[in-house]
Amino acid sequence: MNTIRKPSGKPQAKSTNEIVSAISREAGYLPPQAIDLEEAVLGAIMIENNAIFSVQEILKPESFYKESHQEIYQAALDLSAKHEPIDLYTVGEMLGRKNKLAEIGGAVYLASLTQKVGSAAHVEFHAKIIAQKYIQRELIRASTDIQRNSFDDSIDVTDLIDYAEGEIFKVSEGHIKRDVQKSYDIVKKAMKLIEEAGNKPDGLSGVPSGFSELDKLTLGWQPSDLIIIAARPAMGKTAFVLSLARNISVDYSRGVAFFSLEMSAEQLMTRLMVSESGIDSRTIKSGKLTTEQWTHLEKSIVPLQNASMFIDDTPALSIFEFRSKARRLKSQYDIELIIIDYLQLMTGPNETRGNREQEVSAISRSLKAIAKELNIPIIALSQLNRSVETRGGNKRPQLSDLRESGAIEQDADIVAFIHRPEYYGMTHDEEGLPLVPGLAEIIVAKHRNGPTDIINLKFRSEQARFSNLDDIPDGIHTYGLSDNQGGYKDFDSNSFAAPQPQSPFSGGSFENNNDPVF
């Protein structure tokens, strides 16, 4: 298979304009442009020194259609960067130093620009129109490249789709900008959020997790936050986020999107059905249910049928495809939280392929940007490296254990680890106190906007779910509690062993290694 044919080098405004002009002539259209406004903006910049500050976050040199205007604007930016005055004479002098003055039409043309506008009153509005025309030209360029590659049968269609998504993503990413806000306006918005949180009975300002102690620590998953949940294999990462999704969508009637890159939607829903019904996982998977069990199952899954939960099980999901799906889900269903299982299975931009650390870093940065754009929390699962296994002592994970990229730690607002000591055969803590089976540590190791702590939850292995801690008998230590020694396993279609006796404090864990295969 041939690779995608990309424009040689970094796409510049000149090549874009040439492509757009050729297509426009063929179609009988004028290329998107606003020459009069370009002249007005450049004239305003040269007659009012501070006008550059109003437009430099909106426009870049390529935004101008005429190449001479690009050179004039670049000269103004260079002067601004050196904190030098910007006027007819300084711009002309800067262009002269670059040997560009004659190319743009000389000092006479610069003078004519200053005569086309009386003031800089509307310069920002004019700049936004110029930016819109540039985006239109970029879309034409991108779609032309996509169209040209689409005619080539030797190019793999999956690569073509990935390339198309990437090109459109680049255009839209450059278009999304936020204006500077006055402190007065920000204070009003912050006060409104505080009042809304105060009016809620639970006092949570974010999306509740359904785990009371965790919610006390985080005040709910906060909008625009990127939350990383990391653990070694067999710790129950998927079970934890499924429990989150169930609590949020069923108990709180809030929309949740679950992107599963590892398991199918049917497998995930079967897990939720086991959790909701309380019937042993192997019984449900084998289909060997009694009449009473069938009746109970049908009644217990009604809340799941009515839940605002959306599952996407696309494998090897690209960051571009994820962004487009997330935006659509937010627009159509007003989802309030997104879960990704898991980050390392996503694919990043083409230019980062081959360097796994750079690819994971790009994915992490993009997830944070999407969380801010949609103003919702995104929870992404992540693997840990093997250093946890070789570490002595309690084997609790550390931030340095995050796999493949330090950017994950940097980009995340919250990093939490799932740790179950008994998975490593630990039955007592460092002080010699016994650990109760069925409990797990949620270690909040990084919390950008709040404290860190260790939250204890109960892991019910026979239902593959996490829940709040039940009352613990006196004399039993609750710090660092976890589930059974055998570990958390996925479905095994060939294992239908009969349920084992349960300890009254085990939450369904087993004394031997024949653990539930859910």
What does this protein structure show overall?
With 518 residues, the protein is of the alpha/beta class. It contains 19 helices and eleven strands. The strands form two sheets. Strands 3-2-4-5-1-6-8-9-10 form a nine-stranded mixed beta sheet. Strands 7-11 form a two-stranded parallel ribbon. Strand 4, helix 17 and strand 5 form a beta-alpha-beta unit. The longest helix has 28 residues, at 123-150. The chain is elongated.
Layout: helices, strands, pairs:
Layout: H1 13-27, H2 35-47, H3 51-55, H4 67-81, H5 88-97, H6 106-114, H7 123-150, H8 157-175, H9 183-199, H10 212-218, E1 226-231, H11 237-251, E2 256-260, H12 265-277, H13 281-286, H14 291-300, H15 302-305, E3 309-312, H16 319-333, E4 337-341, H17 356-374, E5 378-383, H18 387-390, H19 407-411, E6 414-419, E7 435-437, E8 439-447, E9 453-460, E10 465-467, E11 477-482
Parallel strand pairs: 1-5, 1-6, 2-3, 2-4, 4-5, 7-11
Antiparallel strand pairs: 6-8, 8-9, 9-10
Helix pairs in contact: 1-7, 2-4, 2-6, 2-7, 4-5, 5-6, 7-8, 16-17
